[in-house]
Design a protein that fits this description.
Shape of chain B: globular
Distance between the termini of chain A: 38 Å
Order of helices and strands of chain B: EEEEEEEEEEE
Strand content of chain B: over 45%
Radius of gyration of chain B: 14 Å
Largest sheet of chain A: 7 strands, mixed
Shape of chain A: globular
Radius of gyration of chain A: 13 Å
Largest interface: A-B, 21 and 22 residues
Structural class of chain A: mainly beta
Oligomer: heterodimer
Order of helices and strands of chain A: EEEEEEEEEEE
Largest sheet of chain B: 6 strands, mixed
Distance between the termini of chain B: 41 Å
Number of strands of chain B: 11
Chain lengths: 112, 112
């Protein structure tokens, strides 16, 4: 069966420090992968999506970047965190045609 | 750009009362999906509607897709404390990338 792993679950980082969040999917090949951010009590903002290895599309200009070094691995990074980067980061995958998303358990990031 | 709007943003009900959230898209949708996010958790896929005027039921939850395929609703009959959470609708983005555009969500609180 397909599973999605996201870590860490919680992270507290100082302003100006780097960030690396990792998401991996098991049990499927060539998934579409997505990074979303959710501010406290707010909706889901799409940050990046990827339809294949090395293919990254950015939805909003920001302090973050994404990479997909392997088919089932999606990484969200920042060189220098800002206070405004705090939030709940969710990775999701879908298979073209199935249309529904499966979300990871999320990373709650607090930048202090 | 394409927008998916959801109302109300918040709803407080007494246990046993009914609850409805409404979703409207700025464009015609090929399908509409609904997700539930429990407090502190990640969104979980509930259902997908595809056909114009479609109605689907999951126990006390009734989902409808409008005739014009631009609006949808989720109705919960006789709410229970286990229904607490945020309910999101989502529709496909304009490009063929599997992107979903999420509504802002409706957060339901149920008083026992």
């Amino acid at each position: 069966s397909q599973t999605i792993h996201q870590w860490p679950a919680t992270l507290v980082q100082p302003v100006g420090s780097p960030l690396s969040l990792e998401c991996t999917v098991e049990g499927t090949s060539n998934p579409n992968l997505y990074w979303y951010r959710q501010a406290a009590g707010r909706g889901l903002q799409l940050l990046f999506y990827s339809v294949g290895i090395g293919q990254i599309s950015s939805e909003v200009p920001q302090n973050l970047s994404a990479s997909r070094p392997q088919d089932r691995q999606f990484i969200l990074s920042s060189k220098k965190l800002l206070l405004s980067d705090s939030g709940f980061y969710l990775c999701a995958w879908s298979v073209t045609g199935s249309r529904s998303y499966t979300f990871g358990s999320g990373t709650r990031l607090t930048v202090v | 750009g394409q927008q998916v709007m959801q109302i109300p943003q918040y709803q407080h009900v007494q246990e046993g009362e009914d609850f409805t959230t409404y979703c409207n898209s700025s464009t015609t949708l090929s399908n509409i999906q609904w997700y539930k996010q429990r407090p502190g958790g990640h969104p979980v896929f509930l259902i997908q509607l595809v056909k114009s005027g479609e109605v689907k039921k999951q126990k006390r939850l009734t989902f409808q897709f409008g005739e014009a395929k631009k609006n949808s609703s989720l109705h919960i009959t006789a709410t229970q404390t286990t229904d607490v959470g945020t309910y999101f609708c989502a529709g496909p983005g304009s490009s063929n990338t599997g992107k979903l555009i999420f509504g802002q969500g409706t957060t339901l609180q149920v008083k026992p």
